[in-house]
Amino acid sequence: MVNSRKASISVTAATVLTAMVLNATVAAQSEPERPRFSGPRGPRVVSPEVSADRRVTFRLLAPKAEAVRLVASDIPGNFRGAEMAKDPNGVWEVTLGPLDGGAYRYNFNVDDVSVIDPRNSSTSESNMNTWSLVYVPGSDFSDTRDVPHGAVAEVTYYSKSLKRFRRMHVYTPPGYESGKGRYPIFYLLHGAFDCDDSWTSVGRAGFILDNMIAAGKAKPMVVAMPAGRTGPFTFGRRRGGAARPPVDEFTQDFRNDLQPYVEKNYRVYRDRQHRAMAGLSMGGAQTLNIAFGNLDEFAYIGVFSSGIFGITGGGPGAAPGPSWEERNKEILDNAELKKGLKLLWFATGREDFLVGTSRATVDMLKKHKFDVVYKETDGAHTWINWRSYLNEFPPQLFK
What does pTM read for this prediction? Predict the structure, then answer.
């Protein structure tokens, strides 16, 4: 009886095993063959690599490429790119520096094709493309420090003026989420080739503000960074040859949609003495247009590497018809509006291609009895200067 039972169990086990083998065989035959990777995977590549002496090495594995250049216009001496050398393993490499502490955008030009660094997950958006981003420690004001940190949010809102959704970045200072009080509002605009991400990625605005607030150099404030472009970048004409729109779309969006959204949804003051605006390059020109067009609402105005486009005759932004000065003559000569203007601050690099525009704009404003603070620094039209100007401007606000 016992032997019969053992035999029965053995037969059952054999049957189950046979079924499992058959099922596995059928499944293997029904599945497509998976690709197998073979051959060398290439050397391990580290890029970018920042050394203790602030030299930065960039690398790219591209064994079949014929020519590779590093493109990083904000790095001094590298406006037209740096040629990279290929080693026997197919790794292209170049070392630059030592560099001043700060953030730098870059990409690779591989046989005339622009690509970001595949070994670097840190990126920065601009108006029409994405850049790889490297940070070199050593900046007194933009390094990440052990201080209370605010928050930067990507905020989507609907623009009724433009009939589409738009995005901005908004900085709120440390303690905003847990507090109940109101804060001053600072509108900060980017340049023509950038976007609303730029001031917080390559511009390091959040960290700069965190550091100055922690040091007691600036009052806590909310900073709204809009998307200054309402379409693709063009010099005078849009894609396909169509002329620019007859109205200033950004000003419409800012006044009718973005500013009301910010001042309704954030705990900010809504009076002139607690409202500031500044911008770089294109954003500086936009700042002048909006702030002077509504001078009773803005007590603090900053213009970085910019001025009234076309004021020196021709150039980007020049338009037929009455000049900016003629269109705004009533405001420029209004003594009452001048009384409430606490700060009108300009800063431009001596090597900046818009330094003449800045100088001419400052001279025009002084002619109309405005008390203009004008500063010329070393450097050109780069984020190195704009981060420095941002470090100087907010401590002068909301006194």
Answer: 0.86
